[in-house]
Design goal:
The protein is built from 4 helices and 7 strands. It is 28% helix and 18% strand. The protein has one domain. The chain is of the alpha/beta class.
Length: 157
């Protein structure tokens, strides 16, 4: 991934202006989760991943939807349609666990470090504005709740 300091001035300004869009969270609802050894864990990534054959993401600045990735999806079926020219896909191509650590979660479940791995995981494109993503994030929260997910491993890309 490119460093902010390495971007041309207009692009650097655009990226820094995005910070102004971020909402302020003065009060945060907090729910104490069960001990990690009993937690059901899901992955939510902004890597623009989807299953081969699923529809790719649209232009990154306007893609506010997400893709559902089943927990039994083979790594060879994962495709990254992240469209940012600033994103280096080499890590993902060498090991999908860099952005979608499903193998590591399954290992943690087998070792009883976590309680279980959720049946479904979720991927956003990650370049849209935070405010534009919020409705889909709320929808996703409902799906996670229905799947009895206690903790989410966020992999921002």
């Amino acid at each position: 991934m490119v460093r902010l300091a390495d971007l041309p001035e207009p692009e650097r300004k655009t990226q820094l202006d995005k910070i102004k869009e971020l909402p302020r969270f003065d009060a945060r609802p907090w729910v104490k989760p069960p001990p990690l050894a009993r937690c059901r864990v899901a992955i939510v990534t902004t890597a623009g991943l989807h299953r081969r054959g699923d529809r790719p993401f649209g232009p990154s600045a306007t893609a506010t939807d997400y893709r559902i990735i089943s927990g039994d999806t083979p790594a060879a079926e994962l495709v990254m349609s992240h469209q940012s020219v600033n994103f280096d896909r080499t890590g993902f191509q060498e090991d999908h666990n860099v952005v979608f650590p499903l193998d590591r979660l399954n290992e943690l479940a087998r070792e009883n470090v976590i309680g279980s791995v959720a049946g479904h995981h979720y991927s956003f494109m990650g370049a849209a504005s935070i405010r534009a993503l919020e409705p889909k994030a709320r929808e996703l929260a409902g799906l996670l709740k229905r799947d009895r997910v206690d903790a989410v491993l966020l992999t921002p890309v």
